[in-house]
Specification:
By secondary structure, this protein is an alpha/beta fold. The chain has helices at 65-81, 88-95, 102-120, 124-128, 147-159, 175-184, 202-211, 228-237, 251-260, 270-273, 276-288, 302-312, 360-366; strands spanning 7-24, 29-42, 47-52, 134-136, 139-141, 165-168, 190-193, 219-220, 242-244, 265-268, 293-295, 345-347, 367-374, 386-389. Strand 9, helix 9 and strand 10 (265-268) form a beta-alpha-beta unit. It binds 2-succinylbenzoate (OSB) and magnesium ion (MG).
Length: 390
């Protein structure tokens, strides 16, 4: 069906899942995640799911679960309930009135794409311009208590067939663990991610120069998100490609980074970019500039992970993505089927929509708060949404 769609019901659910393995980055540690699942239902009864995968605290970026919940409830849901749209990019444009708050917006954008692609009878990956039947999966490994613990994690994931290993680094946990992993696995595609923990000062420059000699695929986000000039200067000094993550929240950030020479590889995250609409645009621009991209993750549950799989099917995703199987993160995922990586490949579904179905029973068990907002059908669509808790 084509024509203008109206969303009649928005449901927001706060859902908690324990991680099977504690994860620590330079900026935060976690054992359990709380994400917000977004469900949109249109006036024809078509349904789409999305996920707001914000960390609980404001340490990766500025958003938190609380800020996402509040912005979703008070601004995004009411906006969605009063906007008629034909294509998901139209809805994304309307939601663009909300500044920042990309994780919160991403949940709605993904739900709109899921709904629309299912209603149109198209696989989400195909709707986005995806061309791959399967995507290459890598893993992201956190900071471990000891180098031996890290080596055990690397061994496990290499044996599972993952195509690339990414190691979280921070001052004090960098050259030594990376050298140890390199020595144990001379040929494994390896990269490091600092989540902005380094500064453009002599002692940190020396560390980055040493890492440059370890045959890494890339060094991801060594400096703070706004430090584009420092990233460009580093790229002038080292051969290893500099990859940006936190620095690119808007397509315009990428325009700046490209102009400065601060980005030789791009991590495209659906959440960080504010949804699939903007993630696809970042991919397109990077591709025009010959910059390879890969899809980063935020430990998404199955809904957000399904969107990552679909995005990774686009032609510019030429490097393995952080789209590991559900079992790397969760004993049980929120989808009826887990996402599976076999020999480092995740299949891209060919069925209409997201390709994985929400497991309502399990989601119900793990939900700590739920909000239902409805369009006011008596009015002309401009009156405020009504909310009920349940
Ligand atoms: O920087 O890519 C990151 C997880 C939380 C916050 C930031 C990052 C990460 C990851 C995990 O690296 C990637 C994944 O979902 O497996
Ligand atoms: Mg990163």
């Amino acid at each position: 069906m084509t024509g203008r769609r109206r969303i009649e019901v928005v449901e927001l659910r706060r859902v908690r899942l324990p991680l099977v393995h504690r994860f620590q980055t330079s900026s935060h540690a976690k054992r359990e995640l709380e994400h917000v699942l977004v469900t949109l239902t249109d006036t024809d009864g078509a349904v789409g799911w999305g996920e707001i995968a914000s960390p609980s605290g404001p340490f990766y970026g500025a958003e938190t679960v609380e800020s996402c919940w509040a912005v979703a409830r008070d601004h995004l849901a009411p906006m969605v309930l009063r906007t008629a749209w034909e294509h998901p990019t139209d809805l994304a444009a309307a939601l663009g009135r909300v500044r920042g708050n990309h994780f919160a917006r991403a949940g709605f954008d993904v739900a709109a794409w899921a709904l629309w692609s299912a209603a149109e009878g198209t696989a989400l990956a195909h709707a986005l311009g995806g061309t791959r039947g399967s995507v290459e999966a890598g893993v992201s490994l956190g900071i471990e208590p000891t180098v031996d613990d890290l080596l055990a994690q690397v061994r496990l994931r290499v044996d599972e067939g993952y195509r690339r290993i990414k190691l979280k680094i921070a001052p004090g946990w960098d050259v030594e663990p990376v050298r140890a992993v390199r020595a144990a696995h001379p040929d494994v595609p390896l990269h490091v991610d600092a989540n902005g923990a380094y500064q453009d000062v002599p002692e940190h420059r020396a560390v980055l120069a040493e890492l440059d000699g370890l045959g890494l695929l890339m060094i991801e986000q060594p400096f703070a998100s706004r430090a584009l000039v420092a990233h460009a200067a580093l790229q002038d000094r080292i051969d290893t490609p500099v990859c940006l993550d936190e620095s690119v929240e808007e397509v315009d950030d990428l325009v700046t980074a490209l102009r400065l020479g601060a980005v030789r590889v791009l991590n495209v995250k659906v959440s960080r970019m504010g949804g699939l609409t903007h993630a696809v645009r970042a991919h397109d621009l990077a591709r025009e500039h010959g910059v390879p991209v890969w899809c980063g993750g935020m430990h998404e549950f199955g809904i957000g992970r399904a969107a990552n799989v679909a995005l990774s099917a686009l032609p510019g995703f030429t490097l393995p993505s952080d789209v590991s199987g559900s079992d790397k993160y969760y004993a049980r995922d929120v989808t009826t089927r887990p996402i599976v990586s076999t020999d480092g490949l995740v299949e891209v579904p060919a069925v209409p929509g997201l390709g994985w179905d929400a497991d309502l029973t399990y989601i119900g068990e793990r939900t700590t708060d739920r909000l239902v907002l409805r369009a006011d059908t008596d009015a002309d669509g401009r009156s405020p949404a009504r909310g009920t808790r349940g």
